[in-house]
Design goal:
Radius of gyration: 25 Å
Number of strands: 12
CATH class of the largest domain: Alpha Beta
Distance between the termini: 38 Å
Number of helices: 17
Structural class: alpha/beta
Bound molecules: pyridoxal-5'-phosphate
Shape: globular
Largest sheet: 7 strands, mixed
CATH topology of the largest domain: Aspartate Aminotransferase, domain 2
Order of helices and strands: HHHHHEHEHEHEHEHEHEEEHEHHEEHHH
Helix content: 25-40%
Oligomer: single chain
Number of domains: 3
Strand order of the largest sheet: 1-7-6-5-4-2-3
CATH superfamily of the largest domain: Type I PLP-dependent aspartate aminotransferase-like (Major domain)
């Protein structure tokens, strides 16, 4: 390992770096806030650090090097789809015409921004076979909640208030049952069959006049395509329920198959996954919520609508023939789900990605994501258990259970040892039905060389498990922070700096 150019492990707080009088060297007058903020709102006694610009730049650059990100290395975090974020998306979202636009600007002065929202909404509807999408929800889980509120309203309008059960397969992401419970539904957990799929036989046992919604992720969180999806949607519809598609795994499907064609009534997308929006560290998300025709009137407000211009106002291109406005007059809508209209910068990024790839390009994205996942799956099966040894979609699971029995080394230890070898750890211990699980998702943009070096790192770790397990129990040792007490970190997080 080469010697570091500075001590990466030292992490002085920005508050401890400064010296009185260093701040604002490059700001005329030293108190620029006076110009923008009324004096009555400014405080003299704020314990803010007094740092030079250079100190601040170095501090944050150093911090950025203490963590791991997609721009630094391979990030195979299953179910989270950590894709490369093309810089052109950020360039588009940062354009002053978008970034400086106030959300309350009149529609007439925001035509470009409204057109972005309209075209994204139309593109998603056509890609996923739904009648319409709301761009309102701020994340996948938020859209799940919106969808279930729509289902509730729909059944109330039909006089079917007894429908109070939401069926959730046991492979589902935790947000599915959480959203259902939050919305006041009772959650029925559905066991998977030995093939890791929803069991239609088990489903039939729980369907009835109290069924409201069945939530399904396809491909599921084992990375397997639910090949009986047509039977499942048929059975749920026959019982009078609605089908919800959790689109977190849409990177495996986009351009190749459409949930609308599979019979889903409601769905969400995580544009912060499939459509290359940065989302590490719980960052801002974007969860468009799609519905079939019979549920469009319930979508959150506002929706962007296009109005045909009069002939004398229309320009030559198709988009010049339309004007756009925000429509709030939707009496059956569940109402707004967040402040303002959407996480707008993400809408710009997603549309930039869609237009940069085009329809065929998006189809190829999914195909390459599936190819990369299967390449890894077959290679890793040479030295780790793969509980579902069949063609997967964009991700797959391996299990360290046998390894644990033989050597005491757990999935957690494998994950930590990968950090020492320069790779982000895969998702661990999810889905819950696979013991000692690692869930690996390479995405489409990784090269064969990167995939090969990941396989070799994991192979080396598994070999080390037999030869020197203590090395793995101690990992990671090359990262800025070593192995943490994860229970304490979750139960007693220390997230705030307080002045001494
Ligand atoms: C399958 C699945 N469903 C739902 C979600 C929730 O999405 P979000 O994190 O955007 O709320 C996730 C997130 O990882 C997921 O993997």
């Amino acid at each position: 390992m080469s010697a570091p150019v500075f001590d990466r492990t030292a992490s002085p707080l920005i508050f401890d770096l400064g010296q009185e009088g260093r701040a604002n060297r490059y700001v005329e007058g030293g108190k620029p806030l006076d110009r923008f903020v009324p004096k009555s709102l400014l405080r003299d006694d704020l314990p803010l650090p007094d740092n030079s610009e250079l100190d601040v730049v170095r501090h944050y650059t150093r911090l950025s090097q203490r963590t791991f990100g997609i721009d630094l290395g391979f990030y195979p975090l299953g179910s989270c789809t950590m894709k490369y974020n093309p810089r052109i998306n950020d360039a588009m979202a940062g354009k002053p015409e978008f970034a400086d636009l106030h959300p309350f600007v009149p529609d007439a002065l925001a035509q470009g921004a409204l057109q972005v929202m309209y075209e994204l909404e139309r593109s998603l509807s056509s890609l996923f076979g739904m009648a319409a999408f709301s761009l309102n929800p701020a994340a996948g889980a938020h859209a799940e909640l919106g969808a279930l509120l729509i289902a509730k309203r729909y059944f109330r309008d039909r006089g079917e208030v007894q429908r109070d059960k939401v069926i959730v397969p046991d492979t589902a992401h935790g947000t599915n049952p959480a959203s259902a419970a939050m919305c006041g539904f009772k959650v029925i957990s559905l066991p998977s069959d030995e093939r890791g799929r929803v069991s239609v036989e088990e489903l039939n046992k729980v369907l009835g006049p109290d069924t409201a919604v069945c939530m399904m992720t396809n491909p599921n969180t084992l990375g397997l395509f639910e090949d009986r999806v047509a039977d499942i949607t048929k059975a749920v519809h026959a019982a009078g329920g609605l089908m919800y598609y959790d689109g977190a795994n849409a990177n495996a499907l986009m351009g190749n198959a459409r949930p609308g064609d599979m019979g889903f009534d409601l769905m969400h997308l995580n544009t912060h996954k499939t459509f290359t929006i940065p989302h590490g560290g719980g960052g801002a998300g974007h969860g468009p919520l799609g519905v079939a025709e019979h549920l469009v009137e319930y979508l959150p407000t506002p929706m962007v609508v296009a109005v045909k211009k009069d002939d004398d106002e229309a320009g030559p291109s198709p988009s010049d023939r339309l004007s756009f406005r925000l429509d709030f007059d939707r009496p059956k809508s569940i109402g707004p789900m967040r402040s303002f209209w959407s996480n707008f910068a993400h809408a710009v990024r997603a549309l930039a990605y869609i237009y940069a790839n085009g329809g065929d390009g998006l189809k190829r994205v999914s195909q390459l994501a599936v190819l990369n996942a299967n390449y890894l799956r077959v290679k890793i099966a040479e030295f780790l258990e793969t509980p579902y040894p069949e063609i997967c979609r964009h991700e797959f699971v391996v299990s360290a259970q046998k390894l644990k029995k033989e050597t005491g080394v757990r999935a957690l230890d494998l994950a930590k040892a990968l950090l020492d070898r320069g790779f982000m750890a895969p998702t661990m211990y999810f889905p819950l039905i696979v013991p000692e699980c690692l869930m690996i998702e390479p995405t489409e943009t990784e090269s064969k060389e990167t995939l090969d070096s990941f396989v070799e790192a994991l192979r080396d770790i598994v070999a080390t498990a037999s030869e020197n397990p203590d090395e793995l129990f101690a990992a990671p040792v090359t990262t800025v922070v070593g192995r943490v007490d994860e229970t304490r970190a979750a139960r007693q997080p220390d997230l705030r700096w307080r002045p001494a």
